[in-house]
Amino acid sequence: MAAAESGTGFPVDPMHQYEIVRMLPIELFGFDASFTNASMWMVAAVTAISVFMIFSVSSRALVPGRWQSLAELSYEFVANMLRQNTGNEGQPFFPFIFSLFMFILFANMFGLLPYSFTVTSHIIVTFAMALFVIAGITLLGLFKHGLGWFRLFVPSGVPIVLLPLITVIEMISYLTRPLSLSVRLFANMLAGHTMLKVFAGFAIMLGAIGGWAPFAFMVAFTGLEVLVAFLQAYVFAILTCIYLNDALHVHH
Amino acid sequence: MEAEAAKYIGAGIACIALAGAGLGIGNIFGNYLAGALRNPAAAQGQFPNLLLGFALAEATGLFGLVVAMMLLFVV
Protein backbone atom coordinates (compact mmCIF):
# COMPACT_ATOMS: atom_id res chain seq x y z
CA MET A 1 0.00 0.00 0.00
CA ALA A 2 3.01 2.26 -0.14
CA ALA A 3 1.93 4.98 -2.54
CA ALA A 4 4.63 5.47 -5.15
CA GLU A 5 3.19 8.79 -6.34
CA SER A 6 6.39 9.82 -8.08
CA GLY A 7 6.35 9.62 -11.88
CA THR A 8 3.62 8.03 -13.96
CA GLY A 9 3.40 4.76 -12.04
CA PHE A 10 0.25 3.18 -10.68
CA PRO A 11 -0.59 4.87 -7.34
CA VAL A 12 -1.00 1.61 -5.40
CA ASP A 13 1.28 -1.41 -5.53
CA PRO A 14 -1.24 -4.30 -5.46
CA MET A 15 1.43 -6.87 -4.54
CA HIS A 16 2.83 -4.97 -1.55
CA GLN A 17 0.22 -6.44 0.83
CA TYR A 18 1.67 -9.95 0.39
CA GLU A 19 5.13 -8.98 1.59
CA ILE A 20 6.42 -10.96 4.56
CA VAL A 21 8.15 -8.80 7.17
CA ARG A 22 10.41 -10.22 9.88
CA MET A 23 9.20 -8.93 13.24
CA LEU A 24 11.40 -11.00 15.54
CA PRO A 25 14.41 -12.56 13.81
CA ILE A 26 15.07 -16.09 15.09
CA GLU A 27 17.73 -18.40 13.74
CA LEU A 28 17.13 -22.07 14.55
CA PHE A 29 19.67 -24.76 13.53
CA GLY A 30 20.63 -22.75 10.45
CA PHE A 31 17.01 -22.22 9.41
CA ASP A 32 15.31 -18.84 9.34
CA ALA A 33 12.48 -19.34 11.86
CA SER A 34 11.70 -15.67 12.39
CA PHE A 35 8.43 -14.49 13.85
CA THR A 36 6.91 -12.69 10.86
CA ASN A 37 3.70 -10.80 10.21
CA ALA A 38 2.31 -14.08 8.79
CA SER A 39 3.01 -15.80 12.12
CA MET A 40 1.44 -12.88 13.95
CA TRP A 41 -1.83 -13.15 12.01
CA MET A 42 -1.91 -16.93 12.50
CA VAL A 43 -1.53 -16.41 16.25
CA ALA A 44 -4.23 -13.73 16.08
CA ALA A 45 -6.62 -16.11 14.31
CA VAL A 46 -6.02 -18.93 16.81
CA THR A 47 -6.36 -16.52 19.75
CA ALA A 48 -9.59 -15.05 18.39
CA ILE A 49 -11.10 -18.52 17.82
CA SER A 50 -10.10 -19.71 21.31
CA VAL A 51 -11.43 -16.58 23.01
CA PHE A 52 -14.67 -16.73 20.98
CA MET A 53 -15.35 -20.41 21.69
CA ILE A 54 -14.30 -20.43 25.37
CA PHE A 55 -16.08 -17.24 26.42
CA SER A 56 -19.25 -17.81 24.42
CA VAL A 57 -19.93 -21.26 25.86
CA SER A 58 -18.67 -20.55 29.39
CA SER A 59 -22.15 -19.56 30.65
CA ARG A 60 -23.70 -22.86 29.39
CA ALA A 61 -27.20 -21.39 29.42
CA LEU A 62 -30.13 -23.63 28.50
CA VAL A 63 -31.56 -20.78 26.44
CA PRO A 64 -28.48 -19.51 24.60
CA GLY A 65 -27.62 -15.84 24.39
CA ARG A 66 -26.28 -14.15 21.29
CA TRP A 67 -22.67 -15.30 21.57
CA GLN A 68 -23.60 -18.81 22.64
CA SER A 69 -26.00 -19.08 19.66
CA LEU A 70 -23.19 -18.09 17.35
CA ALA A 71 -20.88 -20.73 18.80
CA GLU A 72 -23.62 -23.39 18.63
CA LEU A 73 -24.41 -22.35 15.07
CA SER A 74 -20.81 -22.86 13.94
CA TYR A 75 -20.64 -26.18 15.82
CA GLU A 76 -23.85 -27.49 14.25
CA PHE A 77 -22.86 -26.25 10.81
CA VAL A 78 -19.64 -28.29 10.82
CA ALA A 79 -21.26 -31.25 12.58
CA ASN A 80 -24.03 -31.44 9.96
CA MET A 81 -21.52 -31.16 7.14
CA LEU A 82 -19.48 -34.03 8.58
CA ARG A 83 -22.54 -36.22 9.26
CA GLN A 84 -23.97 -35.77 5.77
CA ASN A 85 -20.70 -36.59 4.06
CA THR A 86 -19.12 -39.32 6.17
CA GLY A 87 -21.90 -40.76 8.34
CA ASN A 88 -21.23 -41.90 11.88
CA GLU A 89 -17.72 -43.22 11.24
CA GLY A 90 -16.54 -39.68 10.56
CA GLN A 91 -17.56 -38.32 13.97
CA PRO A 92 -14.16 -38.94 15.69
CA PHE A 93 -12.66 -36.48 13.19
CA PHE A 94 -15.01 -33.65 14.14
CA PRO A 95 -12.43 -31.69 16.20
CA PHE A 96 -9.99 -31.75 13.29
CA ILE A 97 -12.53 -30.58 10.68
CA PHE A 98 -13.88 -27.93 13.06
CA SER A 99 -10.41 -26.50 13.78
CA LEU A 100 -9.54 -26.55 10.09
CA PHE A 101 -12.75 -24.75 9.11
CA MET A 102 -12.52 -22.14 11.87
CA PHE A 103 -8.83 -21.42 11.24
CA ILE A 104 -9.31 -20.89 7.50
CA LEU A 105 -12.47 -18.85 8.08
CA PHE A 106 -10.81 -16.54 10.61
CA ALA A 107 -7.62 -16.21 8.55
CA ASN A 108 -9.68 -15.27 5.46
CA MET A 109 -11.86 -12.83 7.39
CA PHE A 110 -8.88 -11.14 9.09
CA GLY A 111 -7.37 -10.68 5.64
CA LEU A 112 -10.26 -8.39 4.72
CA LEU A 113 -9.36 -5.89 7.44
CA PRO A 114 -7.49 -2.84 6.09
CA TYR A 115 -3.70 -3.00 6.51
CA SER A 116 -3.90 -6.65 7.54
CA PHE A 117 -2.11 -9.65 6.11
CA THR A 118 -3.93 -12.64 4.60
CA VAL A 119 -2.26 -15.81 5.82
CA THR A 120 -4.10 -17.99 3.29
CA SER A 121 -2.93 -15.90 0.32
CA HIS A 122 0.45 -17.67 0.51
CA ILE A 123 0.62 -21.00 -1.26
CA ILE A 124 3.04 -22.51 1.23
CA VAL A 125 0.48 -22.10 4.03
CA THR A 126 -2.42 -23.63 2.09
CA PHE A 127 -0.20 -26.33 0.56
CA ALA A 128 1.07 -27.38 3.99
CA MET A 129 -2.54 -27.70 5.21
CA ALA A 130 -3.68 -29.60 2.10
CA LEU A 131 -0.67 -31.95 2.17
CA PHE A 132 -1.24 -32.69 5.85
CA VAL A 133 -4.92 -33.45 5.18
CA ILE A 134 -4.27 -35.73 2.19
CA ALA A 135 -1.30 -37.52 3.78
CA GLY A 136 -3.30 -38.10 6.97
CA ILE A 137 -6.32 -39.41 5.06
CA THR A 138 -4.15 -41.73 2.92
CA LEU A 139 -2.48 -43.18 6.03
CA LEU A 140 -5.89 -43.56 7.68
CA GLY A 141 -7.22 -45.44 4.66
CA LEU A 142 -4.19 -47.73 4.57
CA PHE A 143 -4.42 -48.51 8.30
CA LYS A 144 -8.17 -49.12 8.13
CA HIS A 145 -8.39 -51.22 4.98
CA GLY A 146 -4.83 -52.43 4.41
CA LEU A 147 -4.11 -53.21 0.77
CA GLY A 148 -7.86 -53.22 0.07
CA TRP A 149 -7.63 -49.45 0.13
CA PHE A 150 -6.17 -49.57 -3.40
CA ARG A 151 -9.64 -50.61 -4.67
CA LEU A 152 -10.24 -46.84 -4.57
CA PHE A 153 -8.39 -46.59 -7.87
CA VAL A 154 -10.31 -49.46 -9.54
CA PRO A 155 -13.93 -48.44 -10.02
CA SER A 156 -16.40 -51.30 -10.43
CA GLY A 157 -18.64 -51.65 -13.48
CA VAL A 158 -16.01 -50.45 -15.95
CA PRO A 159 -15.35 -52.55 -19.10
CA ILE A 160 -12.14 -54.55 -18.70
CA VAL A 161 -10.61 -52.89 -21.79
CA LEU A 162 -10.87 -49.44 -20.26
CA LEU A 163 -9.79 -50.48 -16.76
CA PRO A 164 -6.00 -49.78 -17.07
CA LEU A 165 -6.69 -46.33 -18.47
CA ILE A 166 -9.29 -45.48 -15.81
CA THR A 167 -6.99 -46.67 -13.04
CA VAL A 168 -4.18 -44.41 -14.25
CA ILE A 169 -6.57 -41.45 -14.48
CA GLU A 170 -7.92 -42.16 -10.98
CA MET A 171 -4.37 -42.28 -9.60
CA ILE A 172 -3.44 -38.97 -11.26
CA SER A 173 -6.60 -37.34 -9.96
CA TYR A 174 -5.82 -38.65 -6.46
CA LEU A 175 -2.26 -37.34 -6.58
CA THR A 176 -3.33 -33.86 -7.73
CA ARG A 177 -5.75 -33.50 -4.81
CA PRO A 178 -3.34 -31.64 -2.48
CA LEU A 179 -2.41 -29.34 -5.35
CA SER A 180 -5.97 -28.47 -6.36
CA LEU A 181 -7.09 -28.14 -2.73
CA SER A 182 -4.31 -25.67 -1.90
CA VAL A 183 -4.31 -23.71 -5.17
CA ARG A 184 -8.10 -23.20 -4.97
CA LEU A 185 -7.89 -21.43 -1.61
CA PHE A 186 -4.67 -19.55 -2.39
CA ALA A 187 -5.79 -18.33 -5.84
CA ASN A 188 -9.17 -17.13 -4.59
CA MET A 189 -7.59 -15.11 -1.82
CA LEU A 190 -4.81 -13.74 -4.03
CA ALA A 191 -7.11 -12.79 -6.91
CA GLY A 192 -9.70 -11.11 -4.67
CA HIS A 193 -7.25 -9.01 -2.70
CA THR A 194 -5.24 -8.00 -5.77
CA MET A 195 -8.42 -6.94 -7.56
CA LEU A 196 -9.50 -4.81 -4.57
CA LYS A 197 -6.13 -3.02 -4.57
CA VAL A 198 -6.16 -2.50 -8.34
CA PHE A 199 -9.60 -0.89 -8.18
CA ALA A 200 -8.47 1.24 -5.23
CA GLY A 201 -5.70 2.47 -7.54
CA PHE A 202 -8.29 3.32 -10.23
CA ALA A 203 -10.32 5.29 -7.68
CA ILE A 204 -7.24 7.35 -6.77
CA MET A 205 -6.21 7.92 -10.40
CA LEU A 206 -9.66 9.08 -11.52
CA GLY A 207 -9.85 11.51 -8.60
CA ALA A 208 -13.01 13.14 -7.22
CA ILE A 209 -14.78 13.40 -10.59
CA GLY A 210 -14.69 9.85 -11.92
CA GLY A 211 -13.44 7.99 -8.86
CA TRP A 212 -16.86 7.16 -7.48
CA ALA A 213 -17.48 4.44 -10.10
CA PRO A 214 -14.55 2.18 -9.12
CA PHE A 215 -15.23 3.06 -5.48
CA ALA A 216 -18.85 1.86 -5.73
CA PHE A 217 -17.61 -1.28 -7.45
CA MET A 218 -15.15 -1.81 -4.60
CA VAL A 219 -17.86 -1.54 -1.94
CA ALA A 220 -19.94 -4.15 -3.76
CA PHE A 221 -16.88 -6.30 -4.37
CA THR A 222 -15.87 -6.24 -0.70
CA GLY A 223 -19.27 -7.77 0.07
CA LEU A 224 -18.55 -10.50 -2.47
CA GLU A 225 -15.12 -11.03 -0.91
CA VAL A 226 -16.74 -11.70 2.49
CA LEU A 227 -18.86 -14.36 0.78
CA VAL A 228 -15.80 -15.84 -0.94
CA ALA A 229 -13.85 -15.86 2.35
CA PHE A 230 -16.60 -17.94 3.95
CA LEU A 231 -17.19 -20.07 0.86
CA GLN A 232 -13.56 -21.07 0.47
CA ALA A 233 -13.33 -22.13 4.13
CA TYR A 234 -16.53 -24.15 3.57
CA VAL A 235 -15.22 -25.72 0.35
CA PHE A 236 -11.89 -26.67 1.96
CA ALA A 237 -13.71 -28.28 4.89
CA ILE A 238 -16.34 -30.09 2.78
CA LEU A 239 -13.72 -31.45 0.36
CA THR A 240 -11.76 -32.71 3.36
CA CYS A 241 -14.97 -34.47 4.48
CA ILE A 242 -15.47 -36.01 1.02
CA TYR A 243 -11.86 -37.26 0.90
CA LEU A 244 -12.26 -38.60 4.43
CA ASN A 245 -15.35 -40.48 3.29
CA ASP A 246 -13.30 -42.07 0.48
CA ALA A 247 -10.81 -43.34 3.04
CA LEU A 248 -13.48 -44.60 5.48
CA HIS A 249 -15.76 -46.36 2.98
CA VAL A 250 -13.85 -47.95 0.11
CA HIS A 251 -16.44 -49.26 -2.31
CA HIS A 252 -16.57 -47.56 -5.63
CA MET B 1 10.24 -11.90 -30.51
CA GLU B 2 11.75 -10.76 -27.27
CA ALA B 3 11.32 -13.08 -24.31
CA GLU B 4 9.83 -10.26 -22.23
CA ALA B 5 7.10 -9.59 -24.81
CA ALA B 6 6.28 -13.29 -25.10
CA LYS B 7 5.84 -13.42 -21.32
CA TYR B 8 3.21 -10.68 -21.35
CA ILE B 9 1.39 -12.22 -24.33
CA GLY B 10 1.39 -15.59 -22.57
CA ALA B 11 0.00 -14.03 -19.40
CA GLY B 12 -2.78 -12.45 -21.41
CA ILE B 13 -3.60 -15.72 -23.15
CA ALA B 14 -3.70 -17.52 -19.78
CA CYS B 15 -6.59 -15.26 -18.75
CA ILE B 16 -8.80 -16.93 -21.39
CA ALA B 17 -9.30 -19.58 -18.70
CA LEU B 18 -11.76 -17.17 -17.12
CA ALA B 19 -14.13 -17.70 -20.08
CA GLY B 20 -14.49 -21.31 -19.03
CA ALA B 21 -15.10 -20.28 -15.43
CA GLY B 22 -17.80 -17.87 -16.60
CA LEU B 23 -19.48 -20.62 -18.63
CA GLY B 24 -19.33 -22.99 -15.67
CA ILE B 25 -20.72 -20.54 -13.12
CA GLY B 26 -23.50 -19.45 -15.47
CA ASN B 27 -24.36 -23.08 -16.14
CA ILE B 28 -24.54 -23.93 -12.44
CA PHE B 29 -26.72 -20.98 -11.45
CA GLY B 30 -28.92 -21.29 -14.55
CA ASN B 31 -29.57 -24.96 -13.96
CA TYR B 32 -30.16 -24.39 -10.26
CA LEU B 33 -32.73 -21.72 -11.06
CA ALA B 34 -34.42 -23.94 -13.64
CA GLY B 35 -34.59 -26.80 -11.15
CA ALA B 36 -35.74 -24.52 -8.33
CA LEU B 37 -38.61 -23.15 -10.40
CA ARG B 38 -39.77 -26.65 -11.26
CA ASN B 39 -39.59 -27.88 -7.69
CA PRO B 40 -39.30 -24.98 -5.23
CA ALA B 41 -39.73 -27.27 -2.22
CA ALA B 42 -36.48 -29.10 -2.94
CA ALA B 43 -34.48 -25.98 -3.80
CA GLN B 44 -33.36 -25.07 -0.28
CA GLY B 45 -31.89 -28.50 0.34
CA GLN B 46 -29.62 -28.18 -2.69
CA PHE B 47 -28.27 -24.74 -1.78
CA PRO B 48 -25.01 -26.06 -0.23
CA ASN B 49 -24.40 -28.07 -3.41
CA LEU B 50 -24.95 -24.91 -5.44
CA LEU B 51 -22.30 -23.05 -3.46
CA LEU B 52 -19.91 -25.98 -3.70
CA GLY B 53 -20.33 -26.14 -7.47
CA PHE B 54 -19.90 -22.39 -7.76
CA ALA B 55 -16.66 -22.45 -5.79
CA LEU B 56 -15.28 -25.42 -7.74
CA ALA B 57 -16.08 -23.80 -11.10
CA GLU B 58 -14.64 -20.46 -10.05
CA ALA B 59 -11.42 -22.05 -8.85
CA THR B 60 -10.83 -23.62 -12.27
CA GLY B 61 -10.69 -20.16 -13.81
CA LEU B 62 -8.35 -18.99 -11.08
CA PHE B 63 -5.85 -21.70 -12.02
CA GLY B 64 -5.44 -19.72 -15.24
CA LEU B 65 -4.76 -16.63 -13.17
CA VAL B 66 -2.06 -18.53 -11.27
CA VAL B 67 -0.42 -19.41 -14.60
CA ALA B 68 -0.51 -15.73 -15.58
CA MET B 69 1.04 -14.72 -12.22
CA MET B 70 3.76 -17.34 -12.60
CA LEU B 71 4.58 -16.07 -16.10
CA LEU B 72 4.76 -12.48 -14.86
CA PHE B 73 6.63 -12.90 -11.58
CA VAL B 74 8.33 -16.32 -11.47
CA VAL B 75 9.51 -17.29 -14.96
UniProtKB/TrEMBL annotation, chain B:
GO CC entries: plasma membrane; proton-transporting ATP synthase complex; proton-transporting two-sector ATPase complex, proton-transporting domain
Site residues by UniProt (Reversibly protonated during proton transport): E58
Gene3D superfamilies: F1F0 ATP synthase subunit C
V-ATPase proteolipid subunit C-like domain span: 9-71
Transmembrane spans: 6-29, 50-74
Keyword DNA repair: no
Molecular function, one GO term: proton-transporting ATP synthase activity, rotational mechanism
Keywords assigned by UniProt, alphabetized: ATP synthesis, Cell membrane, CF(0), Hydrogen ion transport, Ion transport, Lipid-binding, Membrane, Transmembrane, Transmembrane helix, Transport
Cross-referenced Pfam families: ATP-synt_C (PF00137)
Membrane-protein topology: Multi-pass membrane protein
CDD domains: ATP-synt_Fo_c_ATP5G3 (cd18182)
InterPro entries per UniProt: ATP_synth_F0_csu (IPR000454), ATP_synth_F0_csu_sf (IPR038662), ATPase_proteolipid_c-like_dom (IPR002379), F/V-ATP_Csub_sf (IPR035921)
Subcellular location: Cell membrane; Membrane
Entry's family note: Belongs to the ATPase C chain family.
Function statement: F(1)F(0) ATP synthase produces ATP from ADP in the presence of a proton or sodium gradient. F-type ATPases consist of two structural domains, F(1) containing the extramembraneous catalytic core and F(0) containing the membrane proton channel, linked together by a central stalk and a peripheral stalk. During catalysis, ATP synthesis in the catalytic domain of F(1) is coupled via a rotary mechanism of the central stalk subunits to proton translocation. Key component of the F(0) channel; it plays a direct role in translocation across the membrane. A homomeric c-ring of between 10-14 subunits forms the central stalk rotor element with the F(1) delta and epsilon subunits.
UniProt cross-references to NCBIfam families, sorted A to Z: PRK07558.1
Protein name per the record: ATP synthase subunit c
Name of the gene encoding the protein in the UniProt record: atpE
